[in-house]
Design goal:
about 20% strand; single chain; Arc Repressor Mutant, subunit A; alpha+beta; five-stranded antiparallel sheet; 2 domains; about 230 residues; Beta-Lactamase; 9 helices; two-stranded antiparallel sheet
Length: about 230
Protein backbone atom coordinates (compact mmCIF):
# COMPACT_ATOMS: atom_id res chain seq x y z
CA UNK A 1 0.00 0.00 0.00
CA UNK A 2 1.42 3.37 -1.01
CA UNK A 3 0.64 6.83 0.31
CA UNK A 4 0.78 9.67 -2.20
CA UNK A 5 0.16 13.40 -1.98
CA UNK A 6 -3.56 13.25 -2.73
CA UNK A 7 -6.05 14.78 -0.30
CA UNK A 8 -8.28 11.76 -1.06
CA UNK A 9 -6.26 9.50 1.22
CA UNK A 10 -8.60 6.94 2.75
CA UNK A 11 -7.79 6.85 6.47
CA UNK A 12 -10.81 4.61 7.04
CA UNK A 13 -9.47 2.19 4.43
CA UNK A 14 -6.23 1.97 6.40
CA UNK A 15 -8.31 1.01 9.45
CA UNK A 16 -10.18 -1.64 7.49
CA UNK A 17 -6.95 -3.15 6.17
CA UNK A 18 -5.40 -3.06 9.65
CA UNK A 19 -8.30 -5.00 11.13
CA UNK A 20 -8.28 -7.54 8.30
CA UNK A 21 -4.55 -8.32 8.24
CA UNK A 22 -4.23 -8.50 12.02
CA UNK A 23 -7.25 -10.75 12.48
CA UNK A 24 -8.95 -8.25 14.78
CA UNK A 25 -12.60 -7.24 14.79
CA UNK A 26 -12.16 -3.52 14.19
CA UNK A 27 -9.75 -0.61 14.15
CA UNK A 28 -9.56 3.15 14.53
CA UNK A 29 -7.04 5.97 14.33
CA UNK A 30 -6.95 8.56 17.11
CA UNK A 31 -5.38 11.96 16.51
CA UNK A 32 -3.49 13.39 19.49
CA UNK A 33 -1.86 16.74 20.16
CA UNK A 34 -0.11 18.00 23.26
CA UNK A 35 -1.08 14.86 25.23
CA UNK A 36 -4.76 15.58 24.53
CA UNK A 37 -7.00 13.37 22.38
CA UNK A 38 -8.22 15.52 19.47
CA UNK A 39 -10.65 13.03 17.99
CA UNK A 40 -11.04 10.07 15.67
CA UNK A 41 -9.69 10.17 12.12
CA UNK A 42 -11.47 7.00 11.13
CA UNK A 43 -13.04 3.80 12.47
CA UNK A 44 -14.36 0.56 11.02
CA UNK A 45 -17.50 0.02 13.09
CA UNK A 46 -19.60 1.29 15.96
CA UNK A 47 -17.55 -0.44 18.65
CA UNK A 48 -14.26 1.01 17.42
CA UNK A 49 -15.94 4.43 17.25
CA UNK A 50 -17.16 4.01 20.83
CA UNK A 51 -13.66 3.02 21.98
CA UNK A 52 -12.30 6.28 20.58
CA UNK A 53 -15.20 8.37 21.85
CA UNK A 54 -14.61 7.01 25.36
CA UNK A 55 -10.93 7.92 25.25
CA UNK A 56 -11.75 11.39 23.96
CA UNK A 57 -14.30 11.89 26.72
CA UNK A 58 -12.33 10.36 29.58
CA UNK A 59 -8.77 11.30 28.67
CA UNK A 60 -7.57 7.74 29.37
CA UNK A 61 -7.22 4.46 27.52
CA UNK A 62 -4.81 2.50 25.37
CA UNK A 63 -4.46 5.12 22.62
CA UNK A 64 -3.63 7.80 25.18
CA UNK A 65 -1.02 5.53 26.78
CA UNK A 66 0.46 4.50 23.41
CA UNK A 67 0.80 8.15 22.41
CA UNK A 68 2.24 9.32 25.70
CA UNK A 69 4.70 6.43 26.07
CA UNK A 70 5.45 6.22 22.33
CA UNK A 71 5.18 2.46 22.72
CA UNK A 72 2.84 -0.38 21.86
CA UNK A 73 0.07 -1.03 24.41
CA UNK A 74 -1.56 -4.45 24.68
CA UNK A 75 -4.48 -5.56 26.83
CA UNK A 76 -5.47 -9.08 25.75
CA UNK A 77 -8.20 -9.43 28.38
CA UNK A 78 -9.90 -6.11 29.04
CA UNK A 79 -12.49 -7.56 31.40
CA UNK A 80 -9.95 -9.45 33.52
CA UNK A 81 -6.58 -7.69 33.14
CA UNK A 82 -3.50 -8.95 34.95
CA UNK A 83 -2.97 -5.37 36.18
CA UNK A 84 -6.12 -3.19 36.35
CA UNK A 85 -5.87 0.12 34.49
CA UNK A 86 -8.16 2.62 32.78
CA UNK A 87 -10.73 2.29 35.54
CA UNK A 88 -13.22 4.58 33.81
CA UNK A 89 -12.56 3.37 30.26
CA UNK A 90 -12.28 -0.41 30.62
CA UNK A 91 -15.79 -1.25 31.83
CA UNK A 92 -17.49 0.93 29.22
CA UNK A 93 -15.31 -0.51 26.44
CA UNK A 94 -16.23 -4.05 27.52
CA UNK A 95 -19.91 -3.06 27.55
CA UNK A 96 -19.46 -1.79 23.98
CA UNK A 97 -18.17 -5.21 22.88
CA UNK A 98 -14.38 -5.01 23.21
CA UNK A 99 -12.72 -7.97 24.93
CA UNK A 100 -9.12 -7.13 23.95
CA UNK A 101 -7.43 -3.93 22.76
CA UNK A 102 -4.06 -3.26 21.12
CA UNK A 103 -2.65 0.18 20.30
CA UNK A 104 0.34 1.26 18.24
CA UNK A 105 1.70 4.83 18.23
CA UNK A 106 1.76 6.93 15.08
CA UNK A 107 5.22 8.46 15.05
CA UNK A 108 8.09 9.39 12.77
CA UNK A 109 11.33 10.23 14.51
CA UNK A 110 10.45 12.64 17.30
CA UNK A 111 7.05 13.52 15.80
CA UNK A 112 4.07 11.90 17.54
CA UNK A 113 0.63 12.14 15.97
CA UNK A 114 -1.69 9.69 17.69
CA UNK A 115 -2.30 5.96 17.69
CA UNK A 116 -3.77 3.07 15.73
CA UNK A 117 -6.09 1.04 17.92
CA UNK A 118 -7.35 -2.49 17.29
CA UNK A 119 -9.94 -4.48 19.21
CA UNK A 120 -11.31 -8.01 19.35
CA UNK A 121 -14.61 -9.31 20.64
CA UNK A 122 -12.80 -12.28 22.20
CA UNK A 123 -9.84 -12.13 24.61
CA UNK A 124 -6.37 -13.18 23.55
CA UNK A 125 -3.05 -11.67 22.42
CA UNK A 126 -1.88 -10.76 18.94
CA UNK A 127 0.52 -13.19 17.33
CA UNK A 128 4.01 -11.94 16.47
CA UNK A 129 3.07 -11.73 12.78
CA UNK A 130 -0.15 -9.85 13.55
CA UNK A 131 1.74 -7.36 15.72
CA UNK A 132 4.38 -6.86 13.01
CA UNK A 133 1.62 -6.17 10.47
CA UNK A 134 0.06 -3.65 12.87
CA UNK A 135 3.37 -1.80 13.18
CA UNK A 136 3.56 -1.51 9.38
CA UNK A 137 -0.03 -0.25 9.17
CA UNK A 138 0.67 2.33 11.90
CA UNK A 139 3.62 3.54 9.80
CA UNK A 140 1.36 3.85 6.74
CA UNK A 141 -1.21 5.78 8.77
CA UNK A 142 1.53 8.07 10.10
CA UNK A 143 2.71 8.93 6.60
CA UNK A 144 -0.87 9.52 5.46
CA UNK A 145 -1.46 12.03 8.26
CA UNK A 146 1.86 13.77 7.59
CA UNK A 147 1.02 14.14 3.89
CA UNK A 148 -2.28 15.78 4.77
CA UNK A 149 -0.63 18.02 7.36
CA UNK A 150 2.26 19.08 5.12
CA UNK A 151 0.70 22.28 3.77
CA UNK A 152 -0.92 23.44 7.01
CA UNK A 153 0.24 26.63 8.71
CA UNK A 154 2.48 26.14 11.76
CA UNK A 155 0.41 25.31 14.81
CA UNK A 156 -2.73 24.68 12.77
CA UNK A 157 -4.42 21.43 11.80
CA UNK A 158 -4.75 20.75 8.08
CA UNK A 159 -8.21 21.36 6.64
CA UNK A 160 -8.36 17.76 5.39
CA UNK A 161 -7.77 16.49 8.91
CA UNK A 162 -10.32 18.91 10.34
CA UNK A 163 -12.89 17.71 7.80
CA UNK A 164 -11.99 14.04 8.05
CA UNK A 165 -11.90 13.68 11.80
CA UNK A 166 -14.48 13.87 14.55
CA UNK A 167 -12.82 16.66 16.51
CA UNK A 168 -15.83 17.38 18.69
CA UNK A 169 -15.57 21.12 18.07
CA UNK A 170 -18.29 21.80 20.61
CA UNK A 171 -16.02 20.29 23.26
CA UNK A 172 -13.21 22.64 22.32
CA UNK A 173 -15.57 25.61 22.34
CA UNK A 174 -16.87 24.63 25.77
CA UNK A 175 -13.35 24.12 27.07
CA UNK A 176 -12.41 27.66 26.09
CA UNK A 177 -15.49 29.04 27.84
CA UNK A 178 -14.78 27.04 31.00
CA UNK A 179 -11.16 28.20 31.00
CA UNK A 180 -12.42 31.79 31.06
CA UNK A 181 -15.07 31.07 33.70
CA UNK A 182 -12.63 29.33 36.04
CA UNK A 183 -9.60 31.46 35.10
CA UNK A 184 -7.54 28.32 34.44
CA UNK A 185 -5.62 26.87 31.52
CA UNK A 186 -7.31 24.93 28.73
CA UNK A 187 -5.94 21.59 29.96
CA UNK A 188 -7.42 22.12 33.43
CA UNK A 189 -10.69 23.30 31.91
CA UNK A 190 -10.94 20.09 29.89
CA UNK A 191 -10.30 18.04 33.03
CA UNK A 192 -13.12 19.92 34.77
CA UNK A 193 -15.48 19.31 31.86
CA UNK A 194 -14.64 15.61 31.78
CA UNK A 195 -15.06 15.30 35.55
CA UNK A 196 -18.46 16.95 35.43
CA UNK A 197 -19.66 14.76 32.56
CA UNK A 198 -18.35 11.56 34.17
CA UNK A 199 -19.72 12.46 37.60
CA UNK A 200 -23.16 13.12 36.15
CA UNK A 201 -23.06 10.09 33.82
CA UNK A 202 -23.63 12.24 30.75
CA UNK A 203 -21.89 12.22 27.34
CA UNK A 204 -19.08 14.75 27.15
CA UNK A 205 -20.40 16.34 23.95
CA UNK A 206 -23.85 16.77 25.50
CA UNK A 207 -22.46 18.62 28.52
CA UNK A 208 -20.23 20.69 26.23
CA UNK A 209 -23.29 21.73 24.21
CA UNK A 210 -24.98 22.84 27.44
CA UNK A 211 -21.94 24.94 28.29
CA UNK A 212 -21.86 26.55 24.84
CA UNK A 213 -25.60 27.26 25.03
CA UNK A 214 -25.08 28.64 28.57
CA UNK A 215 -27.35 26.09 30.18
CA UNK A 216 -24.43 25.03 32.36
CA UNK A 217 -21.92 27.49 33.72
CA UNK A 218 -18.74 26.59 35.57
CA UNK A 219 -18.16 28.81 38.58
CA UNK A 220 -15.04 29.44 40.64
CA UNK A 221 -12.96 26.39 41.69
CA UNK A 222 -14.85 26.06 44.99
CA UNK A 223 -18.13 25.61 43.04
CA UNK A 224 -17.35 23.30 40.14
CA UNK A 225 -20.48 23.99 38.12
CA UNK A 226 -23.87 25.56 38.48
CA UNK A 227 -26.82 25.14 36.16
CA UNK A 228 -27.95 28.49 34.86
CA UNK A 229 -31.59 29.39 35.56
Amino acid sequence: MLVDGSSELEITHVCEVAARVTGTTGAGIMLMAGDVARGSLGTTDRTSATIEELQFALGEGPCVDAYQSDARIDEPDLAHPAVPRWLAFAGSAVDAGAAAVFCFPLHLGGVRLGALDLYRTTPGPLSDDEAADAVELADIATRAVLVLQADAAPGRLAAELEAGSDLQLVVHQATGMIAAQLDVGVAQALISLRAYAFGNERPLAEVAADVVERRVRFGPPRDLAAVAP
